[in-house]
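We were asked to recover a plausible sequence for a given structure. The inputs and outputs are reproduced exactly as logged, with field labels preserved.

PROBLEM: sequence recovery
POSITIONS: 269
GIVEN STRUCTURE:
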């Protein structure tokens, strides 16, 4: 088995020059993305560098409260990221997005960590942080897509919802088709990833373990576990999101409170 290849700072700087290719394409085609690409690249370097130092210290400390603190921070950031991508906002959006991401991702990750992998101790940072992080990242994308689709459709289909209510439909009956379409929209990226994994792409878990020298069959099993956890987390997050939005926009007597949905003010980057 070959040893792990380490990347020097100079080699990483050389690789970073590839970002200029994307920036060059943006300039050439006048896409208006050059500044965003460069800022995103710098942010990625800074964020991952800080994370690397932080994880190195946490792994060395091996204390449950530091692991708990970092996963709580990760979850809060994921929740705020999920609520900041939609076209419409409403009172309670932050709580709904955070609850959807938190409950779904933590429950899904807990099944994988403790029912499947049986990790000991329960806070083992080398397992808890990366696995929960992958589930969180995909869950926030699913919830963000679901929220955006829900709020847009509710505003655009206001007349249909009100007609159904006037004809005797319950709030959930008037909302059900919109919720179903939004959950599908949130789940599609995960489903597409599941359908082509191993054929079109080698995901991060397989690649990382193979590069670290793990047997390919074990790397594949870990990747399958991760994909199943991500799928469950995304589905749970979208479903919970749909239920929470329903409680916000429909009153106790099934009145449609569409006025609660306000268009988000667009901030230029």
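RECOVERED SEQUENCE:
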């Amino acid at each position: 088995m070959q040893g792990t290849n380490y990347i020097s700072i100079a080699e990483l700087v050389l690789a970073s020059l590839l970002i200029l290719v994307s920036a060059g394409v943006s300039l050439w085609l006048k896409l208006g993305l050059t500044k965003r690409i460069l800022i995103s690249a710098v942010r990625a370097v800074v964020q991952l560098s800080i994370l690397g130092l932080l994880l190195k210290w946490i792994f060395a400390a091996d204390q449950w409260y530091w692991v708990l603190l970092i996963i709580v921070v990760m979850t809060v950031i994921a929740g705020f990221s999920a609520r900041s991508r939609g076209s419409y906002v409403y009172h309670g959006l932050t709580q709904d997005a955070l609850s959807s991401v938190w409950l779904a991702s933590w429950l899904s990750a807990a099944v994988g960590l403790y029912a499947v992998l049986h990790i000991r101790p329960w806070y083992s940072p080398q397992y808890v942080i990366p696995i929960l992080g992958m589930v969180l990242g995909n869950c926030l994308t699913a919830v963000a897509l679901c929220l955006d689709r829900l709020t847009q459709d509710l505003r655009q289909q206001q007349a249909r919802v009100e007609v159904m209510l006037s004809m005797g439909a319950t709030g959930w009956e008037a909302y059900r088709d919109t919720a179903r379409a939004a959950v599908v929209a949130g789940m599609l990226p995960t489903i597409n990833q599941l359908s082509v994994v191993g054929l079109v792409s080698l995901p991060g878990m397989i690649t990382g373990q193979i590069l670290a020298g793990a047997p390919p069959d074990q790397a594949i099993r870990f990747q399958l576990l991760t994909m199943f956890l991500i799928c469950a987390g995304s589905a749970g997050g979208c479903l919970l999101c749909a239920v929470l939005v329903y409680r916000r926009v429909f009153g106790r007597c099934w009145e449609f409170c569409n006025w609660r949905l306000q268009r988000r003010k667009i901030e230029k980057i």
